[in-house]
């Protein structure tokens, strides 16, 4: 509030987005208000990168709240912006949100397809963060579909790639790794 009252507009959208991300897990109504304000400020300051990142966080906030239709709607908005700006990074983010909506609706094949498309797009465009996020989602969905061989290959790429870019969210892979570990142990003949 102090920065906004002082007329600060350069850092404020990013700071508001970061705050909104933190609030998503503890105070969802406040997170929505904070993220909506961050989006308005980012658009007003023509901060395109912050705008799409904030919009993605709004999508995630709706997902956390179980508002799947709203998350899908905002993902479509993000995809439209990405297409208008010819921005493969933002389009990959939109695809990952669409995939998470499909996942929440129980459509594993649809989620897997969208995560795979996001990985491919991000890999081709050399988009680091979008690729990291998409790989984590693809690994989890592939394992959930009981495709151990496919999951192992994706996890190997995800571990190498995410570690190389210091992706903080690499911990999201831990669940998939834990589920895959017994399969690897059996495959190589080790006893637990």
Number of helices: 10
Secondary-structure element pattern, one letter each: HHHHHHHHHH
Oligomer description: single chain
Report strand %.
under 5%
Tell me about the largest β-sheet: none
What Rg is obtained from the alpha carbons, in whole angstroms? 18 Å
Shape: globular
Distance between the termini: 55 Å
Find the structural class using helix and strand composition: mainly alpha
Number of strand segments = 0
Mean pLDDT figure: 83
Poorly predicted runs are none
- Helix percentage: over 70%
Structural features, described:
The relative contact order is 0.07. The protein starts with a helix and ends with a helix. Helix 2 packs parallel to helix 4, helix 6 runs parallel beside helix 8 and helix 9 crosses helix 10. The radius of gyration is 18 Å and the shape is globular. The chain is built from ten helices and no strands. By secondary structure, the chain is mostly helical.
Please name the defining characteristics of this protein:
192 residues
Quick summary:
With 192 residues, this protein is mainly α.
Question: What are the SSEs and their pairings?
Answer:
Blueprint: H1 2-5, H2 12-23, H3 28-44, H4 48-65, H5 68-84, H6 88-104, H7 108-125, H8 128-144, H9 148-164, H10 174-188
Helix pairs in contact: 2-3, 2-4, 3-4, 4-5, 4-6, 5-6, 6-7, 6-8, 7-8, 8-9, 9-10
């Amino acid at each position: 509030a102090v920065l906004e009252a002082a007329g600060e507009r350069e850092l404020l959208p990013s700071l508001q987005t970061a705050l909104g991300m933190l609030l998503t897990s503890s105070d969802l109504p406040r997170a929505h208000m904070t993220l909506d304000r961050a989006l308005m400020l980012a658009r007003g300051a023509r901060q395109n990168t912050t705008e799409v990142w904030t919009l993605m966080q709004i999508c995630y906030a709706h997902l956390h709240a179980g508002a799947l239709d709203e998350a899908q709607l905002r993902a479509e908005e993000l995809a439209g912006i990405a297409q208008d700006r010819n921005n493969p990074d933002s389009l990959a983010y939109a695809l990952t949100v669409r995939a998470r909506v499909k996942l929440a609706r129980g459509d594993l094949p649809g989620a897997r397809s969208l995560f795979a498309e996001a990985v491919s797009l991000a890999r081709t465009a050399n988009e680091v963060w979008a690729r990291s996020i998409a790989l984590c989602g693809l690994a989890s969905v592939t394992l959930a579909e009981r495709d151990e061989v496919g999951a192992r290959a994706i996890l190997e790429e995800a571990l190498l790639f995410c570690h190389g870019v210091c992706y903080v969210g690499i911990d999201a892979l831990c669940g998939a790794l834990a589920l895959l570990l017994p399969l690897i142990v059996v495959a190589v003949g080790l006893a637990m």
